[in-house]
Write a structure and sequence with these properties.
408 residues; alpha+beta; 13 helices; 15 strands; 56% helix
Length: 408
C-alpha cells in the first residue's frame, strides 16, 4: 500500500469519528495557540517598552541616590545625593548638556470638592528639556519661579482632568498640605509606563518643594532622589557616565578612596536591557508552560490511538489476511496520529494568530505574529504526533493475524 492510500484511509477513519478526533486534538490546539500567543505578546511587550524608553530620550542618564551594597565607610551621608552634586555635574562634566535634579513625594491634592493623590516632583526648569517632556497648555515654571520659591504647579494631564473635570485648570488653585498653588501649565499626555501613570504627576519648583513640602536637607545641602542628565550626544553617553561617576566619587570619598559608591548611574540603554531581559525571561517561561499542553496533547493522542488499535483488531486481522504487511499497518496508524497532531496544530495556530490580532487591536501592546514561533509550535506538534503515534502503530503492526482474526 502506498503513502497516498494510507493517507486516504487515515482521513476516512478520522472523519468517521469526528467528535473523538476533535477531542483528541484539543490538547494540541490549546498548546499551539498558547505558545504563539505567549511569544507574540512577549515580543509586543518588548517593543512597547523600547518605544517608551525611546520617547524618554536616548541620551538621558539617571544618577540615582544609593546603591544596593554601599552603606558604610563614606564621608557623605549614605544614599544621599545633594543639589550641589547636580550643580557640579552641570558645570564640571564637559559631555553633559543639561541637568535636572529631582525630589519625589506623594500628597493629596485638593481642588474645590475634588481630591486626588498625586505624585509630586520638585525639579528645575531643565526637566522638560532633559526628559523631552512637553507642556500642552500654559507653561512650565522658570528660573524666576525657582529663585522666588513661587507657589506654582504644572499638572499632569490626568490629574488636571481629575481635579478640574470642567476643563479650566489654568489659573485655578490646587491645595497641597494646606497651601494653595497656582496652576500655570498642563503637561501633554504621556500615558502609563511600567505600571506608573506619568500623567498623575504634579511638578513644582525644587525650591518650593523643599521649603514647603519635603524639607529634606542635610549638612551637605538639599537631598535629591534623582539627578536627570542629558549628554551632549548619544555617542557621548558612555563618556558622560564615566565622568559623572568619577566626579561624584571625588566629591563623596574625601578620605577613603576605596569606599563604596553612594549612587547608581543608569542610562536608557541599561534600563531597556533590564526590561528586555525580564520580558524575554517571562516569555520563555510562559511559552514553556504552554508547551506542557503540547506534551499533554501528545499523551492524549497516544491514548486514543491505543484504544483505536484495540477497537480495530479485527480490521487489522482482515487486512493482514489479504496481504497487508506490518509496515503497511505501521504506516497507516502513524499517519493517523500525525494528521491528528498537525490538524490540531493548524487550528491552534489560527486561534493564536486571531488572539494576537485581537490583543493588538484593543491594547497598546504591539503584539505581532512570530513566524519562528509558528514554525516551532507546528513542528513540535507534528513531532509529538509522530513520537506518541509510533508506539500504538507498532502495537498494531505486531498483532498476530490469527489472534486478530479470532476477535471477529
Amino acid at each position: 500500500m502506498d503513502t497516498w492510500e494510507s493517507l486516504r484511509m487515515a482521513g476516512k477513519t478520522l472523519a468517521a469519528n469526528r467528535l473523538r478526533s476533535t477531542l483528541t486534538m484539543l490538547g494540541i490546539i490549546i498548546g499551539n495557540a498558547s505558545v504563539i500567543l505567549m511569544v507574540g505578546v512577549g515580543q509586543g511587550a518588548q517593543k512597547y517598552a523600547s518605544q517608551q524608553f525611546q520617547a524618554l530620550g536616548t541620551d538621558v542618564i539617571f544618577v540615582i541616590t544609593g546603591t544596593d551594597n554601599a552603606r558604610r565607610n563614606v564621608i557623605a551621608p549614605p544614599n544621599r545625593l545633594v543639589l550641589a552634586d547636580a550643580e557640579a555635574i552641570a558645570t564640571q562634566v564637559p559631555t553633559v548638556r543639561s541637568v535636572a535634579p529631582q525630589i519625589n513625594g506623594s500628597e493629596l491634592a485638593i481642588a474645590g470638592n475634588n481630591t486626588k493623590r498625586a505624585t509630586l516632583i520638585g525639579t528645575t526648569d531643565n526637566y522638560v528639556k532633559v526628559r523631552t517632556a512637553e507642556v500642552g497648555s500654559g507653561r512650565f515654571f522658570n528660573a524666576e519661579d525657582i529663585k522666588r520659591n513661587s507657589r506654582v504647579v504644572t499638572l499632569g494631564s490626568a490629574i488636571a482632568r481629575d481635579l478640574f473635570p470642567q476643563g479650566n485648570a489654568l489659573g485655578q488653585t490646587v491645595r497641597i498640605r494646606g497651601t494653595s498653588y497656582e496652576v500655570i501649565g498642563i503637561m501633554s499626555e504621556k500615558g502609563a509606563f511600567l505600571g506608573t501613570n506619568q500623567d498623575d504627576t504634579i511638578f513644582l519648583p525644587i525650591t518650593t518643594m523643599t521649603s514647603r513640602l519635603t524639607g529634606k536637607t542635610s549638612p551637605y545641602g538639599v537631598a535629591v532622589a534623582v539627578i536627570n542628565v542629558s549628554a551632549t550626544s548619544n555617542d557621548n553617553v558612555s563618556a558622560a557616565q564615566f565622568q559623572i561617576a568619577n566626579l561624584l566619587r571625588l566629591r563623596h570619598r574625601t578620605s577613603d578612596i576605596n569606599a563604596d559608591d553612594t549612587f547608581t548611574i543608569r542610562t536608557q540603554q541599561d534600563a531597556l536591557e533590564i526590561v528586555g531581559n525580564i520580558t524575554g525571561a517571562l516569555t520563555i517561561m510562559l511559552a514553556a508552560i504552554a508547551g506542557i499542553s503540547l506534551l499533554v496533547g501528545g499523551i492524549g493522542i497516544m491514548n486514543i490511538m491505543l484504544v483505536s488499535v484495540t477497537e480495530r483488531t479485527s480490521e487489522i486481522g482482515l487486512r493482514k489476511a489479504i496481504g497487508a504487511s506490518p509496515s503497511d499497518i505501521l504506516m497507516q496508524f502513524t499517519i493517523e496520529a500525525v494528521i491528528l497532531s498537525l490538524l490540531g496544530g493548524a487550528i491552534g495556530t489560527a486561534i493564536g494568530i486571531g488572539g494576537i490580532l485581537l490583543i493588538a487591536a484593543v491594547s497598546p501592546l504591539q503584539a505581532g505574529v512570530s513566524i519562528s514561533a509558528i514554525c516551532l509550535a507546528v513542528g513540535v506538534s507534528g513531532g509529538i504526533g509522530l513520537f506518541f503515534g509510533i508506539f500504538p502503530a507498532r502495537q498494531a503492526a505486531r498483532l498476530d493475524p490469527i489472534v486478530a482474526l479470532r476477535s471477529i
